[in-house]
Amino acid sequence: EAGVTQFPSHSVIEKGQTVTLRCDPISGHDNLYWYRRVMGKEIKFLLHFVKESKQDESGMPNNRFLAERTGGTYSTLKVQPAELEDSGVYFCASSRPGANTEAFFGQGTRLTVV
Amino acid sequence: LAKTTQPISMDSYEGQEVNITCSHNNIATNDYITWYQQFPSQGPRFIIQGYKTKVTNEVASLFIPADRKSSTLSLPRVSLSDTAVYYCLVGDAFYSSASKIIFGSGTRLSIRP
Questions:
Q1: CA atoms of B100 and A48, how far apart (whole Å)
Q2: Which of B10, B30, B83, B105 sees the fewest Cβ atoms within 10 Å?
Q3: Helices then strands (H, E): number in chain A?
């Protein structure tokens, strides 16, 4: 069974540009989560999808971040326009349907804004 | 979720047993204790969870005293590949539901030859 995959593994963009991160969850996992760790900080929750619906987006830092999960399969996280403080590692995780199920994390996308 | 305190870093050598202790003085009655492991350039992964006494799996053992205000993750005979960051979490879900997991700073374990 394939794990959670994220693309790209590393992205370097200039301040003001747009970047889109992609996450492919494990097949059959209705729950999909985005987390991130910015430089020097702890891993923090961003949002949670159940299928295509946003269950909780309380961790999204501001309106420059847009997450989508059309069709309830893969998800994208767009940052527009990117700022220096957005640099960090963005993790995606997925879990089986229902609450309280084990989450499996992807390897992360390292975003560097210069 | 209850706040946890664990050492920032630890060093050990191959073949040794490593014990990482986590304090969670404000743990609630319904809280479980969960440990995650994160290798360099990878996402965190669940390794063990318990409620009280002792839990053992193929990766580690988890010791929880009767008052549950602390817990100890024990890694038997570590190897270089056990070098990772280990996060202690407490939460009210059996698998510490991924929604809003609070990872904290974790313990950076370095294993030397």
A1: 9
A2: B30
A3: 0, 11
Phi then psi dihedrals of residue A85, to 5 deg: -70, -5
Cβ–Cβ below 8 Å for A42 and B101: no
Give contacts of A45 with chain B, Cβ < 8 Å.
99-102
Q: Do B99 and A93 touch (CB under 8 A)?
A: no
pLDDT tens, residue order, chain A (114 aa): 689 999 999 999 999 999 999 999 999 999 999 999 998 889 999 999 999 999 999 999 999 999 999 888 999 999 999 999 999 999 999 998 877 778 899 999 999 999
Tell which phi-psi region holds residue B94, choosing left (phi > 0), alpha (psi between -120 and 50) or beta: alpha
The CA distance from B50 to A81, in Å, is: 43
